[in-house]
């Protein structure tokens, strides 16, 4: 018999980590039942405001004999009760158990939890309908992620190796030798990726919070991921590590939509025209995008750094495809830009002084007339329109690694352009 286990919302900004709890449980339960594949780390809707960090839930599946099921359930509930950070108001754990093959209704719920906003009540209705057993701690919001992680159709996946710290190191600076990370990245890239930011010369595999994670290494080749980890040098002991199968960096959160269909907390790809010049506020860059169904504000926020320079090159009338999450900023529905693709660019015209009609020399402004610097010819002052090349190309522009969402697929990976180019081909604006 197959027994599926889902766990979510056990962590908080002050510490703990659902993957840490999942790794301990995977090890403990593997002693009494046969695991089916690696445990799964499923990232859900990145736009939900009450998420804790990456909004990730953990699921695992075992082949079990019926007589050990009570022991497995008791073990899971014991560890969730013992290790969850119940002191934080936003920590509301949930645990789900499901026996047998995954029904289609559960798969559909999982994708809604990835791309939209779902409620605890909706999760409870689905759980009862498919006869899943669930346990709520405090508000029990974690049953949403737990149920979704069990039902998630992991058709596209990557790997993440998470190494954990000894408990007496939690909350202290992580001791990882930076140069060894750069050397490991040079050896394994692009089979592993986002280990470093080469432009800022910063290490990206170490989190910054009080949680138990020492490093996280992502990749598309499980062997390369483990070997990359083995090449990194640490200044503190590693307690243990766990390799997860995950939907990170798949772009599966992005759904093609018209602008008028967008709702708060959606993740979407839209095609539209730039409706006016960009503006800036507090180092954030904004512009408006419109199609035949409506208009929405688009933002490239300060943490996206040089990505904003490409956004500044857009002109009113440009047709682009934009991908990102829908949130509110200053009370206005805003698409937080992750990637964009220029489909059609309007001509860029600049007004310049003409060349001297007599000798071809450079004309210089002299009050209300122009005078040639070479031959001295004078003529009335006028500027002529000249079309100049656009600096944007027909390619996808993406945010830098340290501003990338967990789910966003880097362009270096196979399929990194798939979602946007699909929209470019099939979703025209009128």
TrEMBL record:
Reaction catalysed by this enzyme: cytidine(34) in tRNA(Ile2) + agmatine + ATP + H2O = 2-agmatinylcytidine(34) in tRNA(Ile2) + AMP + 2 phosphate + 2 H(+)
Alphabetical list of Gene3D superfamilies matching this protein: 2.40.50.1010, 3.30.70.2200, 3.90.600.20
Compartments where found: Cytoplasm
Domain TiaS-like TCKD, first and last residues per copy: 5-137
Enzyme class: ligase
Gene Ontology CC annotations of this record: cytoplasm
Annotated protein name in UniProt: tRNA(Ile2) 2-agmatinylcytidine synthetase TiaS
Listed GO biological process terms: tRNA wobble cytosine modification
Gene behind this protein: tiaS
Domain TiaS FLD: 140-253
Function comment: ATP-dependent agmatine transferase that catalyzes the formation of 2-agmatinylcytidine (agm2C) at the wobble position (C34) of tRNA(Ile2), converting the codon specificity from AUG to AUA.
Domain TiaS C-terminal zinc ribbon stretches: 354-392
InterPro entries associated with the record: NA-bd_OB_tRNA (IPR004365), TiaS (IPR053434), TiaS-like_TCKD (IPR053870), TiaS_FLD (IPR013696), tRNA_Ile2__agm2C_synt (IPR024913), Zn_ribbon_TiaS (IPR055394)
Domain of life, source organism: Archaea
GO terms assigned for molecular function: ATP binding; ligase activity, forming carbon-nitrogen bonds; nucleic acid binding
Similarity annotation: Belongs to the TiaS family.
Residues annotated as signal peptide: none
């Amino acid at each position: 018999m197959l027994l599926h286990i889902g766990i979510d919302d056990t962590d908080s900004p002050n510490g703990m980590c659902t993957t840490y709890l999942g790794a301990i449980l995977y090890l403990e339960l593997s002693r009494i039942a046969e695991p089916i594949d690696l445990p799964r780390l499923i990232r859900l809707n990145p736009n939900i405001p009450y998420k804790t960090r990456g909004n990730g839930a953990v699921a695992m599946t075992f082949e079990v004999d019926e007589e050990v099921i009570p022991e497995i359930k008791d073990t899971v509930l014991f560890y969730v009760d013992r290790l969850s950070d119940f002191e934080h108001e936003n920590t509301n754990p949930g645990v789900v158990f499901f026996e047998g093959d995954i029904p289609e209704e559960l798969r559909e719920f999982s994708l809604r939890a990835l791309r939209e906003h779902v409620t605890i009540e909706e999760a409870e209705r689905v759980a009862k309908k498919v006869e899943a057993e669930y346990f709520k701690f405090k508000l029990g919001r974690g049953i949403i992620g737990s149920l979704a992680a069990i039902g998630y159709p992991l058709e596209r996946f990557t790997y993440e190796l998470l190494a954990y710290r000894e408990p007496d190191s939690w909350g202290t600076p992580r001791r990882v030798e930076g140069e060894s990370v750069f050397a490991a990245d040079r050896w394994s890239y692009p089979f592993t990726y986002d280990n470093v930011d080469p432009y800022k010369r910063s290490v990206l595999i170490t989190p910054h919070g009080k949680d138990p994670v020492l490093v996280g290494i992502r990749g598309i080749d499980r062997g390369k991921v483990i070997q990359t980890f083995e090449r990194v040098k640490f200044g503190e002991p590693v307690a243990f590590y766990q390799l997860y199968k995950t939907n990170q960096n798949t772009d599966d959160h992005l759904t093609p939509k018209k602008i008028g269909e967008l709702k708060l907390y959606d993740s979407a790809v839209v095609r539209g025209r730039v409706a006016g010049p960009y503006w800036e506020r507090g180092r954030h860059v904004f512009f408006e995008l419109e199609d035949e169904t409506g208009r929405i504000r688009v933002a490239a926020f300060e943490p996206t750094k040089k990505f904003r320079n490409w956004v500044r090159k857009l002109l009113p009338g440009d047709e682009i495809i934009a991908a990102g999450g829908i949130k509110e900023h200053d009370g206005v529905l805003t698409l937080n830009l992750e990637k964009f693709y220029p489909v059609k660019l309007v001509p860029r015209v600049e007004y310049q002084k003409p060349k001297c009609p007599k000798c071809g020399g450079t004309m210089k402004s002299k009050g209300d007339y122009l005078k040639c610097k070479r031959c001295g010819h004078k003529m009335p002052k006028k500027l002529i329109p000249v079309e100049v090349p656009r600096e944007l190309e027909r390619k996808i522009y993406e945010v830098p690694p340290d501003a990338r969402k967990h789910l966003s697929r880097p362009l270096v990976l196979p399929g990194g352009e798939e979602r946007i180019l699909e929209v470019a081909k099939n979703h025209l604006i009128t």
